Amino acid sequence: MGIIMGLRCKVCGKKFEGGLKFVCDKCWGPLEVDYDYDVISETLRKDDLKKRFFSLWRYLELLPIEDARNIVDLGDGGTPLHRCRRLGEEFGVKELYVKDDTVNPTLSFKDRPASVAVSKCREMGINTVGCASTGNLAAAVAAHASKAGLRCNILVPYNIEPSKILQTASFGTRIIGVHGTYDNANSLGILAAEHFGWGMVNINIRPFYVEGSKTLAYEVCEQLDWETPDTVIIPMASGALLSSIHRGFKELEKLGWINCNTRFVGSQPNGCSPIVNAFKINSEITPVDEPSTIAKSLAIGNPASGYEAIQVVKERKGTMDSPTDEEILKAMKLLAKFEGIFAEPAGAITLATFIRMHEDSEIDASEKVVLFVTGNGFKAPGTREKIIEKPVEIEPRLGALKNLVDSEET
Hints:
This protein is of the alpha/beta class. It has helices spanning 37-43, 46-49, 85-91, 111-124, 136-148, 166-169, 182-196, 206-209, 215-223, 240-254, 274-281, 306-315, 325-339, 345-359, 381-384, 398-409, and strands at 4-9, 15-16, 31-35, 81-83, 95-100, 128-132, 151-157, 174-178, 199-200, 231-235, 263-267, 319-321, 368-373. It has two domains: 4-73 and 110-209, Rossmann fold (3-Layer(aba) Sandwich), CATH 3.40.50.1100; 81-107 and 213-387, Rossmann fold. It is built from 16 helices and 13 strands. The strands form three sheets. The protein has a six-stranded mixed beta sheet, sandwiched between helices. Strands 8-7-6-9 form a four-stranded parallel beta sheet, sandwiched between helices. A three-stranded antiparallel beta sheet has the order 2-1-3. The longest helix is centred in the middle third of the chain and has 15 residues, at 182-196.
C-alpha cells in the first residue's frame, strides 16, 4: 500500500527499480526509498490516523510495503511521549519530553526498523534474514523472524556479554560469534549477504530497514498535536537513527502537515564518537578501532550513516556532543529517579547531552525539547548494577524499621 517508485541514490539522484541494492553503482552513495508524495497526499489525511491503531503501521502509506498482508508486527511503535515535569523543573525548562522506546516488544527502538525490514524480506520472498549487531538489533530481528517463520542468522562480536544475547537466543535463532569488533561482524555480514542471498537487514535491506525509524518523527509530531519541537536530542551509533528521524520530519513537511524549524542534536559516547569528532573539526570521519564505553549499543567505530548525520545537523543548525560514561550513568539515575524511566546507557545519553547543553546555556527555558530514549535498562546488565543501591537489611521488628525511618528523616 506504500506508493513506492523504487530506490534513489541520496548523493547523485540515480534511480533504481528496487531489489537488494543498497549502494549506487554510479557514485557508491547510499540508496533510499523513493515515494510518490503527490499520490500519498491525495490518499492519506491526518484525520485518517485517528481511526487507526497507534503503532508504526498506522503510517502504512509512508512505509515501503506494497501488500499489508506481508506485515510482520509484534505491536511495534506507538510508544509514549512523556512530559517530564520533574526533570523540567529541576533544570528550569518548561517543556521537556522523553520519547520512550524502552517499551517496544524487545525493549528498544530497533523493533521499528526490524519490523519494516523483515516485512520487506517476506514481501520479496527472502526466507533467511539476519544482521550484524551489538545486541539490540539482534533481539529485534530474531523476534520478528520467529513471528514470520523465517530462518535467522545473527553475527555478533565473539566477546559480547552472554546476557546481551540471552533474549536473542530465546527465539531459537542461530547466533554466530565473530572474532573482532562489531565492524568485523558487519564486514562479514556484507559478504554473507552477497554469497548466500540472505536478507541482512542493516546491509542489503538497509534502504527499507531505515524507514522504520522515521516513524518516531511521525509519532512525536502527532503526540504534540502536529507541532514540532524546538530541539531534539538523538543517540548516534551508525548515525542512521538521526538521519531517519530527519527524513520523517521532512516527509510531514512535504505533505503540508507541519512547519519544521527543529534543531537537531546528535549524541555519541566519549569512548566511541567518530561522528562527533568529525563534526567538531569539520573533517572526514576517522573510524575508532577499539570502542570503549558503557553505551555498548552505540559502540560502532565505523559508522555507515555518519556523513548523513553530519549533513542533517549542519542543515538544521544543530550540534553534536559526546558525554563521558560517568555523565551517562548520572543521567540513567536521574531518568529513573525523577521520571520512572529505566533506560540503558545508549538511551540515557540524550539526557546527559541535555544536561551538558543546559550547563553551557545552549538550552533556553522556553524551548520544547524532546529526548529520544531508545533502549531499556534491562538491555545493559553490566551497567544497571552501577546505579542500583543495595537493599537496607533490618530485623523483622517494628522498632528496627522505626529506627531506620527516623535515621533517614534526621
